[in-house]
Amino acid sequence: MKTIGFAGCSFTYGDGLEYYDGTNTLSRFSTLVGNHFNVNTVNQSFRGGSHTKIISWWEDYLKNNSVDVFVFQTTRWPRSDSKILPNVSYIEMMNRHHARLEGWLIENNLTLEEY
Amino acid sequence: MVNRKQSYSRRILSQGKLDDTLSVLQFLQSYEDKFPIYILQWPEETLEIVKSSPWAQQRLISLTYKDKVFESISDLMGNPLNAKMLPISRIKKSAQTILFNTGEIFDFTDSSRPELTIATDYETFKKPRRDYHPSKLCHKVISDNIIWRLENDNIF
Q: What are the structural domain ranges in chain B?
């Protein structure tokens, strides 16, 4: 039997569908597509997931497994774990450090590159 | 001073957006010889970057609902312009905004297709939960469009 891989965040996970069905899996789009074609689905999605997390899981999975089709749902970029500055990710910067860093750079008359 | 501050913000934000989106495209392209790949775009904010790659644009699943075609789930749900992220320190909460545990603030004030969001799905619920994920109908719409695309491309 063929397999479709679905990667994404809480949208692909089916977050909130439990209010309709008591479960997130019955009516999520990956299940509906799998049912239509009568194929297996691998839905590996993460609630609040970043691209970094989604890609990391799928890279590991695809080392030893394969799929026949792959559907990748993009999520919001600021969730990314990648670092814009040493030890500072985008989400960390946005949530905690952004305003302080900006202020510090301006106070010290430094550019981002100089920092 | 203000201009310089804004310039830092813009550079950090645009570079972050670009880097993250390109990392996704790079990951997907590394499997292009192994299986067919499709992209389902959620946020409006990175759509232009995705579309700037002919490779990615070819694999983008468009979403048709009530005779209108959308290129992102955000657009389909009717809240593309108000979905935004702000540093927590700058957040001004209102009845129409929601703070996700990821630190993101979304403003759904102008949602024009309310039945596609759980929190405004009054077709199903008298008092919908304050949950801003796609509704059951929205999942059906997305699945119908994926099915259409896979059939159209003779995948199965």
A: 2-152
